[in-house]
Amino acid sequence: MKSVNDRIEAIREEVRALGHDIHEHPELGMEEFHAVQIITEMLEKYGFSIERNVCDIKTSFIASYKGRKSGPVIGFLAEYDALPGLGHGCGHNLIASLAVSNGIALRDAIDEYGGEVRVIGCPAEETRGAKVELANAGKFDDLSVAMMGHPCGRHGASGIMYALDSERFEFFGKSAHAGGAPWMGINALNGVIETFNNINALRGHIEPDARVAGIITDGGKGAGIVPDFAAAQFYIRSPRSSYLREFSEKVKNCARAAALATGTSVEIINFEGWYDDLHTNQTLSERAVKYTKEFGVTQSMEPYNSSGSSDIGNVSYRTPSIHQWFDVTGDPDIGTHTPGLCAGADSDYGYDQMFIVSRAFVKTAEDILSDPAFLADIRAEFDTYGSNN
């Protein structure tokens, strides 16, 4: 414990300055060039080799530090994109700082036991979800574990996050004068409206924890013109990817039926990829929670189950994973994507809690490096997941 504390304290101010810099220079997804520059410069300073532009994503990177002998590969996931108009209201500056702190502090254990630590830069969690592309390309497959922490209003163990499908329905009709000759037109907006009606009829016949929410993005150019184009976007969610596939197809059928009924045509576009549900590795999570409490957190650390979604879910299907939550506000009523969370993400209290979690993650990773039986238990749990999902 003392060794972990000493290593974290040695880099504390530098890591905090990094987090503050990212917080003061918020960048939207796929535009996080400043964040990536300062993160990778710091990791290079501490002996990490950097692979940039991973999967042709300009703000992705994999930073690696290898021991002299082979062993487990520990992955710490960094996010650093901000929200439009709200800056770091989701606290991704702290997610990046946590991953950097973890990676640097674990180097001594890598030197002692062997293996490798990677800090993996994952852009655009709020939109495009680069972890999806990285996962599809196999970039997480050789990790022994993947770990990340997320700021919020309380400490919590890694829990549930929903699978998410993002679908855009574009309807095409024929314009005409809405007053003079409406019968000459085909109303694309009617296709959108009937899609909403069909989905509302579907709601009574889906699993109670499934979710669908949508907006009209294009509804026509003027009340006097029959719209020849209209569009809507929907987020479709379920706590299980397996059910989401069935549910999403039903939602798409609502749009297809609307097109048939209104004489329009419809194009269905997946506009933000597919996020799998988060499968928390309980063996790994329990050890991380144990150390989080031993390093000073007195909150109950119950699993934080969220009906929100994240691309960490796709990682959890590739390697044993956790997405632990940590308090940065001292107030559980302050949610993410709020000004209060943005303030907490650059506060003394927020950084103090983040460094507690960093100590816990580094100690957990040391256990993986030094105890093959612990890693075997983690892997055994992971290997049973596919047959039970």
What this model shows, in words?
- With 389 residues, the protein is of the alpha/beta class.
- It is 42% helix and 21% strand.
- The chain is built from 12 helices and 12 strands.
- The strands form 3 sheets. Strands 1-2-4-3-5-12 form a 6-stranded mixed β-sheet.
- Helix 1 packs antiparallel against helix 3 (92-105) and helix 3 packs across helix 11 (348-370).
- The longest helix is centred in the first third of the chain and has 23 residues, at 2-24.
- The two termini are 37 Å apart.
Compile the SSE list and pairings.
Layout: H1 2-24, H2 33-45, E1 49-52, E2 61-66, E3 73-78, H3 92-105, H4 107-113, E4 116-121, H5 130-136, E5 145-152, E6 157-158, E7 163-172, H6 188-202, E8 211-218, E9 229-238, H7 241-262, E10 265-275, H8 282-294, E11 303-304, H9 312-316, E12 321-327, H10 339-344, H11 348-370, H12 372-388
Parallel strand pairs: 3-4, 3-5, 5-12, 6-11
Antiparallel strand pairs: 1-2, 2-4, 7-9, 7-10, 8-9
